[in-house]
UniProtKB/TrEMBL annotation:
Name used for this protein in its record: 3-dehydroquinate synthase
Stretches assigned to the 3-dehydroquinate synthase N-terminal domain: 60-172
Pathway the protein acts in: Metabolic intermediate biosynthesis; chorismate biosynthesis; chorismate from D-erythrose 4-phosphate and phosphoenolpyruvate: step 2/7
Leading EC class: lyase
Function as written in the Swiss-Prot or TrEMBL entry: Catalyzes the conversion of 3-deoxy-D-arabino-heptulosonate 7-phosphate (DAHP) to dehydroquinate (DHQ).
Cleaved signal peptide residues: none
Essential cofactor(s): NAD(+); Zn(2+); Co(2+)
Lineage start: Bacteria, Pseudomonadati, Bacteroidota, Saprospiria, Saprospirales
Species assigned in the record: Phaeodactylibacter luteus
GO molecular function, one term: metal ion binding
């Protein structure tokens, strides 16, 4: 078992049974609730339930997926808690991916002004990124995570064994945040990862802790995103807009897939504005295209993208804010770009050749 500290809580990486026992020992909660979606109920709850033996718990099930990360689903969670008369010393256990973690944490932190919660992330994305750092929330009017708060869990319990049932597409989505961590802060890791061809044989148990360390260090330095934490948003100014629009179509993108598009566009902006070397831009572009293919974006959506970027949470005043790379492994926050430059970045992406299927 590996343990990292962050603020007032610990992140444990290892088999789920001992982690849960260690967490519950010596703590008292009047009731335990476990938030799941239909997939984590089927694939993760059977492995998790034995860890709670001797502790009665109530399952709260919500529908899976980003399209349900909204106030209506929060209402379902609050209703279940209210019907069970959950008190402020009840615990909500978020057993699932980033949607369960972000929304469960938000619902817990607002119910009766806040009940404790823990994160038990079951996707690659949530194990390296979403479960730590205390950013909680839901989507509103296509603007990702625009209603939310910062609030820390009592613990984060990561067991890479949960990944065994995750689809290849979801693994790829989580891998985008791992690539992001390497690009902003770990050039050595980026050098190793950009030659990794087969994700299905990757050693996630080794990659997860190394990636987590990047986020842990940045969040510890700036938990409320006043400065350096904005680095973790590389690829997200454009990526979130692309994700928000795609979510309303028949071909929604997963978070990491949209962030991969955003990272290509923002690498181009990094080249134009901060002198990211052309060769690095090419390596980033080619590797991301190889892993993610080339999801289509359309010129007819540019106005909507710009409108959504106008509501990016990093913005100050009217300017659209980016976190950009002067070099692989380095990042500069609070960069702005004009509308023309942003359109240049979207055009750069659109003119790229579609990679041949592998
Ligand atoms: N708070 C943060 O710092 C932060 C960071 C990154 C991303 N996010 C958010 O996280 C969300 C994306 O998270 P995600 O990619 O985990 O999505 P998700 O929670 O939708 O999970 C992806 C899919 O995998 C299923 N699933 C989960 N675990 C499984 C398992 N072990 N086996 C089989 N299926 C499983 C889920 O039911 C879902 O269908 C986005 O909303 C994004 O905005 C938040
Ligand atoms: O933890 C952070 O800070 C991040 O930016 C991590 C991102 O990967 C994540 O997608 C986060 O939810 C984005 O936050 P937002 O403030 O841009 O909504
Ligand atoms: Zn993200």
């Amino acid at each position: 078992m590996q343990t990292l500290a962050l603020g007032s809580y610990h992140i444990h990486i290892g088999p789920i049974g001992p982690s849960v026992s260690a967490f519950l020992k010596g703590r008292h909660f009047s009731q335990l609730f476990v938030l799941v979606d239909e997939n984590t109920k089927a694939h993760c709850w059977p492995a998790f339930a034995p860890a709670l033996s001797g502790y009665p718990s109530t399952l709260i099930e919500i529908p899976a997926g980003e399209t349900h990360k909204n106030i209506a689903t929060c209402q379902l969670i609050w209703e279940q808690l209210m019907k069970a008369s959950a008190a402020r010393d009840a615990l909500l256990i978020n057993l699932g991916g980033g949607v369960i973690g972000d929304m469960g944490g938000f619902a817990a932190s607002t119910f009766k002004r806040g009940i404790p919660f823990i994160q038990v992330p079951t996707t690659l994305l949530s194990q390296v990124d979403a479960s730590i750092g205390g950013k909680l929330g839901i989507d509103f009017m296509q603007v990702k995570n625009s209603i939310g708060l910062f609030s820390d869990p009592q613990a984060v319990l990561i067991d890479p064994a949960f990944l065994r049932t995750l689809s290849g597409r979801e693994i790829r989505s989580g891998y985008a945040e791992i690539l992001k961590h390497s690009l902003i802060a770990d050039a050595g890791q980026w050098g190793r990862l950009n030659t990794l061809a087969q994700l299905d044989t990757a050693e996630w148990s080794e990659i997860i802790p190394q990636s987590l360390l990047v986020k842990q260090r940045i969040v510890a330095a700036d938990p409320f995103e006043k400065g350096i934490r904005k680095a973790l948003n590389f690829g997200h100014t454009i990526g979130h807009a692309v994700e928000g629009i795609a979510l309303e179509t028949d071909t929604p993108l997963l978070h990491g897939e949209a962030i991969a598009v955003g990272m290509i566009c923002e690498a181009w902006l990094s080249h134009k504005k901060l002198g990211l070397p052309q060769e690095t831009l090419h390596t980033i572009t080619n590797y991301l295209l190889r892993v993610y293919g080339k999801p289509a974006i359309h010129k007819t959506d540019y106005t909507a993208y710009l409108q959504l970027m106008g509501n990016d949470k990093k913005n100050e005043g009217q300017a659209i804010n980016f976190s950009l790379l002067p070099a692989a492994g380095q990042v500069e926050v609070n960069c702005t770009a004009t509308q023309e430059q942003i359109i240049g970045a979207l055009d750069y992406y659109r003119q790229l050749p579609s990679p041949a299927p592998s």
